[in-house]
Amino acid sequence: MVPTMNESISYFIQQVINGLTVGSTYALIAIGYTMVYGIIGMINFAHGEIYMLGTYITFIVIAGLTLLGIESLPFILIAALIISMMVAGAYGFTIERVAYRPVRSSKRLIALISAIGMSIFLQNYMRLAQGSRDLAQQSIISGSWSLGTDEISVNLAYMQLIIFVITLICMVLLTLFISRSRVGRACRACSQDAGMTNLLGINTNHMIAATFVIGAMLAAVAGVLLGLYYGVVNPMIGFIAGLKAFTAAVLGGIGSIPGAVLGGLILGTAETMTGAYFSAQYKDVVAFSLLCLILLFRPSGLLGKPEVEKI
Amino acid sequence: MLLLEDIHTHYGAVHALKGVSLNVKKGEIVTLIGANGAGKSTLMMTICGDPQASQGRVIFQGEDITQKPTNKIMRNGLSVVPEGRHVFTGMTVEENLAMGAYFQSKEVKEQQEERVLNLFPRLKERFHQRAGTMSGGEQQMLAIGRGLMDEPELLLLDEPSLGLAPLIISQIFEIIQQLRETGTTIFLVEQNALKALAIADRGYVLEHGELVLQDTGQNLLANEDVKKAYLGG
């Protein structure tokens, strides 16, 4: 049966909503890539693993609280967010100390290999700790709103709304931190001119560590949200999510935070559209084709601009 | 106030400074002149601990700072305005100045900000503008202003006249003199030897990593060798 015009429109809008949901979590992860790149010029390939960790912690927190008989959804959600952000922050800090700081002044290839090594280590450490099979978690937040008129109607799941709201809160807080706070300003200064920041008496190592911690916390938020949304986790999910978020960061312009957000949203929408109109199996093809295209035709990304230095 | 004893600095295999000893006393303007590549900037950066001296001692206010990390050195009464200004181009004038007073209390920060803006009224006009959009002269003023935000005892200035129009250079040198009058000691590295010696109490001449002359600013201005080498005859 051929769908009617209204059904087609509804379907389209529904896919946009779904795409933006996934996209906003990509954006959260992509911010970590872009911030770390901005401050030390390296890609943190272990970043996707932090997201995976965030999802595991969510499942553990849910299981733990359920055992204790706590069933209040807001409490579980907030507890999962806080605990996974704290743990992920500690991991981000440690990763920087162990895998980056010792090799920061060496060649870029060495730092890259160190990052990939850290990524493989975290994947396998999770396999040992939690097993390599998929863990599933019944969705604790279900139900949805029907929006629109009789002709055109779409569903907005509660979980989707939660993802939008929490992502938005994170972005607002991050923006305020970066633009207004003293440490945020020093992080920006450090990414613009680390040598000069050091000459002002500021310990650039602290700023780099702060960047890793903030990036890891945002990835953990994405882990919590996607964990609740999909309800599945295995030790390898960080790899593909990391690549996607990396693509989003490059798409928007690596080093640019608004770029990472835009890139994430575009990538999420493009993927979902591919799944909806062609085949879900082509989702990744589209995502990485986008990466190739942007690298070929606009290597600085959508919002990134080549630095112009004034003499 | 600042004492360098037999400083040697290596940049990889390059022996950039070969036993430099000099001193700067409180309230002085001391200048270091020399040709391109003589090691002037290396000397300046060695004081800041980046790179560290491979031999010899740097003593600031009685304390040996030779082996201290740069960020620790720069927190106690020492500020540098490096060659090429290095303002944070993506940040506003206000933010750049705030970075200069990172460890200061809010009161000191506001007080210093007012002082800097009075010294450089142009920065007041550009207060909310991004540093990268300003002219070279304005950026230099900002770099000096940022250096002053920390209330330094000693201000290190590396080539503040580099690439600027003559009128702006004169303004900057006037301000350097004003700074001394308000109690800031100044160590000035310059290629513009004429201007630098004219305002300096004392001067040193650096050639190939070694000091070859030292005297008062006036005497160096009158010195035949200096005239020939650095003042265009």
The best one-word shape of chain B is globular
Q: Tell me the fraction of residues in β-strands of chain B, as a range.
A: 25-35%
Largest interface: A-B, 21 and 27 residues
Name the strands of the widest sheet of chain A in spatial order: 1-4
Rounded average pLDDT of chain B: 93
Figure out the total of helices of chain B: 10
Task: Characterize the overall form of chain A.
Answer: globular
Elements of chain B, N to C (H/E): EEEHEEHEHHHHEHEHEEHH
Number of strands of chain A: 4
List the topology elements.
The complex is a heterodimer of chains A (311) and B (233).
Chain A: H1 5-40, H2 47-67, H3 73-100, H4 108-130, E1 135-136, E2 144-148, E3 153-157, H5 158-180, H6 182-192, H7 194-199, H8 204-230, E4 232-233, H9 237-252, H10 257-277, H11 283-297
Antiparallel strand pairs in A: 1-4, 2-3
Helix pairs in contact in A: 1-5, 1-8, 1-9, 1-10, 2-3, 2-4, 2-8, 2-9, 3-8, 5-6, 5-8, 6-8, 9-10, 9-11, 10-11
Chain B: E1 2-11, E2 14-24, E3 29-34, H1 40-47, E4 55-60, E5 63-64, H2 70-73, E6 78-81, H3 93-100, H4 106-119, H5 121-125, H6 136-148, E7 154-158, H7 166-181, E8 185-190, H8 193-199, E9 202-207, E10 210-216, H9 217-222, H10 224-230
Parallel strand pairs in B: 3-8, 3-9, 6-7, 7-8
Antiparallel strand pairs in B: 1-2, 1-4, 4-5, 9-10
List keywords for this structure.
heterodimer, A: 311 residues, mainly alpha, two-stranded antiparallel sheet, two-stranded antiparallel ribbon, 5% strand, globular, B: 233 residues, alpha/beta, Rossmann fold, 6-stranded mixed β-sheet, 10 helices
Describe this structure in words.
The complex is a heterodimer of chains A (311) and B (233). Chain A is mainly alpha-helical. Chain A has helices spanning 5-40, 47-67, 73-100, 108-130, 158-180, 182-192, 194-199, 204-230, 237-252, 257-277, 283-297, and strands at residues 135-136, 144-148, 153-157, 232-233. Chain A has a domain at 25-142 and 153-236. In chain A, the strands form two sheets. Chain A has a two-stranded antiparallel ribbon with strand order 1-4. A two-stranded antiparallel ribbon of chain A has the order 2-3. In chain A, helix 5 crosses helix 6 (182-192) and helix 5 (158-180) packs antiparallel against helix 8. The longest helix of chain A is centred in the first third of the chain and has 36 residues, at 5-40. Chain A starts with a helix and ends in a 14-residue tail after the last helix. In chain B, a hairpin with a 2-residue loop joins strand 9 and strand 10 (210-216). The relative contact order of chain B is 0.19. In chain B, the strands form two sheets. A six-stranded mixed beta sheet of chain B has the order 6-7-8-3-9-10, sandwiched between helices. In chain B, strands 2-1-4-5 form a four-stranded antiparallel beta sheet, covered by helices on one side. Chain B is built from ten helices and ten strands. The A-B interface holds A 182, 185-186, 188-189, 192-193, 195-204, 308-311 and B 48, 50, 70-75, 80, 82, 86, 88-91, 95, 98-100, 102-103, 132, 136, 139, 146, 150, 163.
